Amino acid sequence: MNRKRIAIFGCGFTSRYRSNLSRAFNTAADELGCDLVYFNSLGKIGNKNAQYGIYEFDLIEDIDLSSFDGIIFDGEGYNVEGMADKVIHKLRQADIPVVSISTRVEGFYNIDFDDRGAMKLLVEHFIEKHHFDRIGFMSGYLTHPDAVARLEVFRSVMKEHGLPRDGVGMFEGDFWFHKGEEAADYFLSLPQRPQAVVCANDYMAIALSGAFKKRGVRIPEDIAISGFDGTIEGQEYLPHITSATRERLDIARKSLKLLISVSEDETEEKVIHITPRTIYTQSCGCEKLDYKYEAESINRLYEINRNFSYGMYDTQSSLLKLNKVEDIHDLEKLFSENPIYFGEYTSFFLMLHTDEENRLSIENDYTCSAGIFTPIIWIDKNREYVHSGRVFDSGRMIPESDQDRAHFYYVMSVHCAERAFGYAVIEMEGKDIFDEFYNVWLLNISLTLEGLLKNDRINHLIDTLKDMGNRDSITGLLNRRGFDAQTRELLSRLKGTHIVCAMVIDMDGLKTINDEYGHYEGDRAIKAAADVISRCCDSGEIVARAGGDEFYIFAVDYSDRLLERFYKLVQASLETFNQNSGKPYTVSLSGGYHLTESNAMGRIEEFLRISDARMYEEKMKKKVERR
Fold first, then answer.
1. For 469-626, which CATH superfamily applies?
2. What's the rounded Cα separation, in Å, for the pair 113 and 259?
C-alpha cells in the first residue's frame, strides 16, 4: 500500500462549522485515496479556562512530521492566545508542504478566498435586486482583518452607486451573538430606519434578526438582513439567513490535490483560489418558507435533542463508573462496555507516555517521556490492526491497518494540568466526526488517570514514611544517615580482606540551573541525576544522596572492570536522557573513586574523603577545558 498520509492541525473540530469541514475533507480524501490524521485540540474549556489548551501543545511537540506527505493547517480555530503561533513554528520545521486553509501564513501554501467579491454581490443584491437605498452595516470588531475588508467592500459598493459611504449607519459588532440587542437599538434609533442591514457574518445576523423580532420588526418585510460565511446555524434559523459560503468540499479537494501534487514533485501555484457562493433566501425576501422542509427540520432537531439526552445519561453513568476505576487495565473494559454515545466508531486506542524504565506516566516513579507510548486501551472492532503489544513512537503514533481503504483518524491529547499522560486515537465508522460527548469522555479519562497517579503517590508516600528516616525525600535514595548505617553494617560483616570501592559523584552546573530556571527545575535535575546513577548501580552498590547535588556510592567485591562498566553506563544513560528530556539544559556529573582493600575495620569516612578529593580534581579539570 502506497497511500498518501496527510496531517490536519486545528482546534474545535466538533464545532458546527468544523465538523462539516471534517466531513468535506474526509469525502475528498476518500475520492483521492489518501489517509487523514487530525490533530484536534480542545482549546478553552468554557469561555475562560485556557489552561487545558495550553498543555495540549505538549503532544504536538511529540509529533514526527516527517511521517506525513503533507499538512493542512486550520489556524483560525485556535482560541488560546499564542497557540496558533506555536503550531506554526512547529510546522515550519517540516520538510513537507503545508496548506493554510483559514489564515494566511508566510511560507505556506495559502487559500485566496474571494470574500470581497462575494460581499460585493450581497450589497449589490440589495441595491439592484430589491432597489434599497437605505442600507446599514453591522461590522465585526474592527481589529479583525475580515471585518476591515468586508466594511471596505460595503463602503466601496455604496459609493459606486452614489449612496452614503456608511449607508444609514455602521455598527461595530463582535462576530458573535452578544451585540444583537445593542445593534437593534442603534439601527432603530437612526433618523432613517434602514430597509436592510448587511452583517459581516451569520452569527451577528442571527442575533440582530432575533433582537428586531423582539421589538416587533418583521424580517424581511420591515427590514431585510444578510450575513456572511454560510453557516449551518444561519440556514437553520428562521428566517434562513441570506449569506455567502466558502464551499468546504471545494476547499478540501483543492487543498488535498495540491499536497499530493507537490509530494510527487509536480509544480503547483502557491495560492489556491476559492470563490464563495452566494445564498439568497428568506431574510432578504428572495425565498418563501417551505413548510414541509421546515417540518422535517423540526424532526431532525427532535432527534438531535433525543441523542443529546441519551449522551447525557450515558455520561452520568460512565462518570460514576470511571470514579470506581482502581486499575489502569479496567479502563478498556469500561470503555467498550459503557461508551458514551458520541457516534459509531470502529477503533479506539489510548497510548500513555513511557519512560526509559518502562514506567507509565500514571506511575509515581515516572520521570519523563522516552519518546515512546504504550497502548493501554486497544479496541479494534473490525480486527484490522495488528496488536503485537509493542510500544509506539512519534514516527508511528497510529497502528497500521491491513485494509487498503481511506482512514480518518482523530488524535487528541490526554492530560491534566500537572502531567501529559499520552494521547487517544479514534476512527469513526463513516465520514462524520464524533460529537462533544467524546470530548467529555476523554476529559474524564484524564481525571481518572490523574486519580490513579495520586493513588500511586499516596501508596508511595506510605512506603516512604515507613522508611523516611533513612531516605531522601526528593530522589528516594538513601540519605546520609541511611548510607552510613548500611555501609557500616556491610563492612562489619566482612570476613577477611575484600576489594571495596567508594565513589563520590557531584552534579555540574546545578547552581546555574537553579538561577536560570528556578529551584523546582533544579530539584527535577537532581531527581534525573539520581535516576541515572541508581539505574547504573546494578552490581550490589549502595547509593545515596548525601545532600545537595552530591551522591555517595559504596560496594564490596568490586573491580576495575566493574568500575569502568559503571562509568560507561552512567555516560550512556546521561546522553540518552539529555537527548530525550526536552529540557533547555543538560545534566552532567563529575566523579571520584577509591578502589582499595579493606576488612571489617575499614573506615568509610576515609574512603569517601579520598574519593571526594578526586572528584574535585575532575571538576577543576572540566573547568580548565571549558576555558
1. Reverse transcriptase/Diguanylate cyclase domain (3.30.70.270)
2. 18
